[in-house]
Amino acid sequence: MKRALVCGAGGFIGSHLVEKLKLEGYWVRGVDLKMPEFSLTMADSFAIADLRDPENCKWVLDGYFDEVYQLAADMGGAGYIFTGEHDADVMHNSATINLNIANLAAKYKVGKLFYSSSACIYPAYNQVDPNNPKCSEDSAYPAAPDSDYGWEKLFSERMYLAYARNYGLNIRIARFHNIFGPEGTWCGGKEKAPAAICRKVAEAQDGGEIEIWGDGEQTRSFLYIDECLEGIHRLMQSNFIGPVNIGSEEMVTINQLADMAMRIAGKKLSIRHIEGPLGVRGRNSDNNLIKERLNWAPSKSLEEGLRKTYDWIGEQLRK
Question: I need a labelling partner for 67 at 20 to 30 A (CA). Which of 43, 131, 247, 315 fits?
């Protein structure tokens, strides 16, 4: 039986990843500062531990692991990342975790290590035109991420690549593009756009209004959790190190995303645009490399995933 360690197993993607690995027959240890918020973990062993402490990393990494998935990070949506109020914590906390995990994974000679990077590493200067953003993997340099969160992710990519060169650490790196779905954060300030909009639409009375930050013409693509997990699986089974985008190429404006949520809800609402943190003007996944190297790319529609997410958030509001 293969053994896997999932760092960040109490979070949205991590908890879903634990479930997928268990269904594939792995023995799984999860580790996080907290248990999953919305469901019981399927992990065989779950450690409540702060991975900023190298001593904690030593004992959660005890024994051999065929695969280590490093998703633990200090993160959130635009309301958390782009205000500037959390930059020091985001950089310190996430970098410290990655330094600890990279060092010990190399020392203990784990089989493979997956690192979840982010589309936030891409240069802001290539994402000014909302209709024509450039996010191909080779466009990352000259570096100019639009947030300190993005700078930390880019630093950690380079660190894992350095450990691969110098110490033989067998790594895989993916750049996630806005992963969403049920059991993700949907309120409290750290939620991302799909969950925030689904919540606002679900809470609004038919004929009412919802608020959207900015003019709503900023563009993004959003990837449903199941396709994210399939992308991780295919990358880990391949010989391709990456970095590679794991995201959807179905680009929409935030206004279009809101219209889609309203259509799913069967509500007619008006939108009031207000000041708020926005990030780059346009972003979309470029999937040419993942098609070339893995012979696969995400293909399910945004509306299919948004419908499942809206229904789940509606259930939370009724509790």
Answer: 247
Residue 39's CB: how many other CB atoms inside 10 A? 12
The pLDDT of 125-154, averaged and rounded, is: 97
At position 87, the amino acid (one-letter code) is D
Look up the pTM and report it. Answer: 0.95
Same domain for 97 and 207?
no
Q: Could you identify the residue written with the tokens 């600890």?
A: 100
Most distant pair of Cα atoms in the chain: their distance = 61
Residue 149 and residue 260 in one domain = no
Spot the catalytic one: 149, 160, 163, 310. 149
Give the model's pLDDT for residue 190.
80
* Alpha helix stretches (DSSP H) within 204-287: 225-237, 254-265
Q: Show the domain range for 270.
A: 183-221+250-282+300-318
Averaged pLDDT, 140-149: 96
Q: 210 and 270 in one domain?
A: yes
SS3 state of residue 235: helix
**SS3 state at 316:** helix
Taking the C-alpha atoms of residue 29 and residue 253, their distance in angstroms, rounded to an integer, is 39
What total of structural domains would you count in the chain? 2
1 contact partners, CB below 8 Å, separation of at least 6: 25, 26, 27
Q: Are 140 and 82 in contact (CB under 8 A)?
A: no
Confidence of residue 78 (pLDDT cuts 50, 70, 90): confident
Q: How far apart are CA 46 and CA 26, in angstroms?
A: 14
- Binning pLDDT at 50, 70 and 90, where does residue 227 land? very high
Residue 143: per-residue pLDDT: 98
Annotated active-site residue 149? The verdict is: yes
Rounded Cα–Cα distance for residues 264 and 167 (Å) = 50
